[in-house]
Structures are given as C-alpha cells and as structure tokens.
Amino acid sequence: MPTLKEPVDVMTTQEAASYLGVSVSSVQKLVESGVLSAWRTQGGHRRIPREALLAYKGGLEPAGAQRAARSRLIVVEDDPMLRAVYAARIAQWELPLDLTICRSGYDGLIEIGVNAPDILLLDISMRGIDGYEIMETVLARPALRHVHIAIVTGLEREELDSRGGIPPGVAFFQKPLPLEQLRGFVTACCMHKQRAQA
C-alpha cells in the first residue's frame, strides 16, 4: 500500500460513508460510477482522497476545475516502452497536470532544478544517477519539501531496505505498473494543490 504524505489525506470506504452520512454500498457505487475518485491498495482495499469527498459534498465535480491550479508532474523512467505507457495513460486521466517525462536520472535532476515539480514518479533502477539518488537529493532540499514522491520499481521492499528503505512520506508502487493505484495517488496530489490554493 502506498504511503502518502500527511497533507494528502485519504479515507477508507467505511470512513467515507460515515463522513457523507450514507451506506458503504452507496460509496462503492459512487466510486464505480466515477463520481468519486479512488484507487485500490495492493491488498484490494479502496482509498478515497479526502478532497474528492469534500468536492462531492460541496456539489462540485472533483476533476472538473479546469481553471484551478495545475500540478506539475515529472516522471523519470529509462525504459522507452514504459515512458510511452505513462504518456498515453496519464493523458487519458484528464487531470489538471503539466507532464514532463525524463529518460534518465541525469535529465530528471536537471528538470527538477529548472522547474520544481509538485509530483515526482521515479524508477529506481537506472544507469548512472538512479531514482534512489534523485529521491535523496529532493528530500534533502527544504525548497522541495512540498514535492509528493512515489517510487515505481520492480525491486522488492527488502532490496530497497539494503539502501536505507523507503523514507516516511514516500509512496511505493511495485511494477508492473499499477496504473489505477498511480492514478489515485496523482489525483489526490492534484486535489491537494487545488484545495491549498483555493
């Protein structure tokens, strides 16, 4: 299950039902019909961004604020096939995003330095500067404290432990790409920025 930064609050289906004053099955129907954004954990449990619930309760379309603040997403991935998948699928999500895809850790660091992202998706295993080094660099910079980071890797958690593990506040996703989980994570991050700037 991804570990999210504290500001990006999420609720279980039960918590969402209690918050909205409806049944769990009603929440499930809202999710299945696309009215509420959600994603599933690796254990199969739904997670719903708090911002999506606030928007729904206020009678707003969660993903409809085209004039709202846009989030900047940087994906760092050295596999050309996966870069193409990211580009195609993220475009389909229709989120208020500006996407940049970098083909190497070196390119990623330069891009982060020039245009700091709001969201960062990192492949870990890359030649030269890898995703772990990028993550450590970003986490060490106070000016980048706002960046939501997700590791996307084929490595097991145990293998990452040998390099110091997954820092608190960094999400972990296992390859093959769990696109619906990633969509939920990115959606929550976008809504967090919109709410912060509302």
What do these coordinates show?
With 198 residues, this protein is of the alpha/beta class. The chain folds into 2 domains: 48 residues, Multidrug-efflux Transporter Regulator, Chain: A, Domain 2, CATH 1.10.1660; 126 residues, Response regulator (Rossmann fold), CATH 3.40.50. It is built from 8 helices and 8 strands. The strands form 2 sheets. Strands 5-4-6-7-8 form a 5-stranded parallel beta sheet, sandwiched between helices. The chain has a 3-stranded antiparallel beta sheet with strand order 1-3-2. α1 crosses α2. The two termini are 29 Å apart. The N terminus is likely disordered. GO terms for molecular function: DNA binding.
Strand content: 15-25%
Spatial strand sequence of the major β-sheet: 5-4-6-7-8
| Number of structurally distinct domains | 2
Radius of gyration: 17 Å
If you average the pLDDT, what whole number results?
83
pLDDT below 50 for ≥5 consecutive residues: which ranges? Answer: 1-8, 60-66
Largest sheet: 5 strands, parallel
CATH topology of the largest domain: Rossmann fold
CATH class division of the largest domain: Alpha Beta
* Second CATH tier, the architecture of the largest domain: 3-Layer(aba) Sandwich
Q: Classify the helix fraction into a percent range.
A: 40-55%
Question: Which of globular, elongated, flat, extended, rod-shaped describes the shape?
Answer: globular
Would you tell me the structural class of the helices and strands? alpha/beta
What order do the SSEs take from the amino end to the carboxyl end, as H and E? EHHEEHEHEHEHEHEH
Alpha plus pi helix count: 8
